Amino acid sequence: MTAIWKDTLSYACHGEGKPLVILHALGTDHRAMEAWMEPLFANRPGWLRIYIDLPAHGHSQVKNGGRTSEDMLAIILEFLDDFIPGKRFALAGKSFGGYIAQGIFARKKALLDGFFLLSPALHLQERTLPARTIVERDEMMLQELAPDIRAAFETLMTVQTRENLAYFLEEVQPGRLLADRDFLTSDWRTKGYFFPFSPFDDMEPLRYFFSVGRMPFAATVIIGLCLSAFRTPLFRFSTVPAICWKSKSASWFSRFAPTGSIA
Length: 263
Prior knowledge:
Elements: E1 10-14, E2 18-23, H1 31-37, E3 47-53, H2 69-83, E4 89-94, H3 96-108, E5 112-118, E6 136-137, H4 139-143, H5 147-156, E7 159-160, H6 162-178, H7 181-184, H8 188-191, H9 204-212, E8 221-223, E9 241-246, H10 252-256
Parallel strand pairs: 2-3, 2-4, 4-5, 6-7
Antiparallel strand pairs: 1-3, 5-9, 8-9
Helix pairs in contact: 1-6, 2-3
């Protein structure tokens, strides 16, 4: 029997060694992560970087009745079981990719040496968010853009400069053109987005953080100002919340992160 993921999931791999599974944000594809993460490994051998296009993104499809985030998670878990069977691995995810990563964590934490969540979507039906702040804005440049590109650029970027526009067009826009917009704008957003389980129910410090949106000292946390050196438009923020966890037996994050504190 052919595995479902083989007809559904697209991915790219670089390097060899310890697997690091990397998941992108909603509406983009793996290239939006690949562009800024690959330079981090130029002088860090020993890592197999696995960039997955989430279902309905890039060249990955939504098939076989899969209509929920839980269905997406099941396909990715099947892929991991086939591609790195029984191997210990690390995990990184941004935004919605960070939410899927939380599902992987819940199902595979016995094999995880650590994971990194950048501005992750949370398992919360209701949230209270701070007001959005635009750090820099080039109004003349914005007026030159096609309406669709301008709308996406203004939505995603808080530093709206020509430099970031170049990054956006190279790293984000290609994935936007491939995204399955019919699916992503369907009732999946209201009926299928959330898992039927809470990813951190059995880990009190992380469950507390994700339930109330506060950072307990018991959790392993870095704030994204230390990430500002990364060459990526998605990090052009005044701050970028990031949550990091590592197993007691793992030292992967000390090699992965350029700076930051490990609790």
